[in-house]
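pasting for ref
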Amino acid sequence: MSADRRHVGARLVVLLAAVTALTPLTINLYLPAFPRIAAELGVGHEQVQLTMTATLVGIAVGHVFLGSLSDAAGRRAPLLVGLGAYAVVSAAIAAAGDVTLLTALRFVQGFLGAAGLVVAMAAVRDVYEGAAVGKVLSRLMLVVGVAPVLAPALGSQLLLAGSWRLLFLVLAGLAVVLLVLVGLTLPETLPWAVRRRGGTAAAVRSYRDLLRDRAFVGLVAVAGLAMAGQFTYISASTFVFQETYGLTAQEYALVFGLGAIMVTTGTQVAGALMGRVPAVRIVGGALLVATCGATAIAVVALTVGTGPGRLWPLLAALLPTIGAVGVLLPTVPAIALARQAHDAGSASAVLGVAQFGMAAVGAPLSGLLGTSVTTMAAGMFAAYAAAGVVLAVIARRLPGM
């Protein structure tokens, strides 16, 4: 990689990070409003959680189309169109009058919001190579970690000023700002010479080749399972902390923010270790910590108990678990993208489908089975343990990085 490309890539990081932040904000900004949405629309907890599931499914499906499209049409155009349409749909959500329409529009919002994340990851692969991919992704994942810190806190403050509908108007405004910034400052990182030709048939071949790579598929499964465990926690947390532990929306935002800080710390630990410690060992160690942490959460709930005044033992077990997931966020994609130099958009798309598709499975799980601490812990444990088994199976096929 030339010095010029490194310089261009360094200039892109801040803008790509801002674009990347839209996805976690889309998911997390309205978390403190779950109880209010349920009350206003006259629905149960599980129906509100399904609006998050719809968003995650939309993000996953969006990755399939937008990732492949960005390999053929370049990075700028899909991102600009996605941001513009996202702003319109977000404004429409603010006017939704029932949970069915809300769920459908959240699916579309997630689909469009995927453009930022998939294009940002592919653009990093356009500019960087080898271990540098992981280091730059760790910086983007820093934003993915910080955004959830800010999102519930911002959402809870906005709820003091208005209804949950205001949150979606804010998202619409943010998309307009990003649209202007991208239109004015984002260069095209994918040259014409390396864009995929051949239309739909070529796109299908690209995905077929990716899915024939067993090590890549294994990494995709690890990424997806880790995200499923994380979203089992995220979707249950608003009810667990506010209803089981008696926190206000603002107190919940602070506690959720502590977890997001741990995710952020984990991403930066991963970036510091990348190139010094084999990436496969980093992933294995993080999965071990996450699995043990999920076990500890259940033990705390069963022995110490739950309810007001018993929060700190839970946090002592929960926070390291979430931090370990933060280590996984840049490391697994870095290993996977290192294997796919010419189909970075499609590879990023497959990773996104797995992550957000599996997150869509994890998000409503605790609501369907009961929003208790032990149910949340069981879902997290199952996901992290399964990811560890998959990693053990494919470890010998992975590069040393």
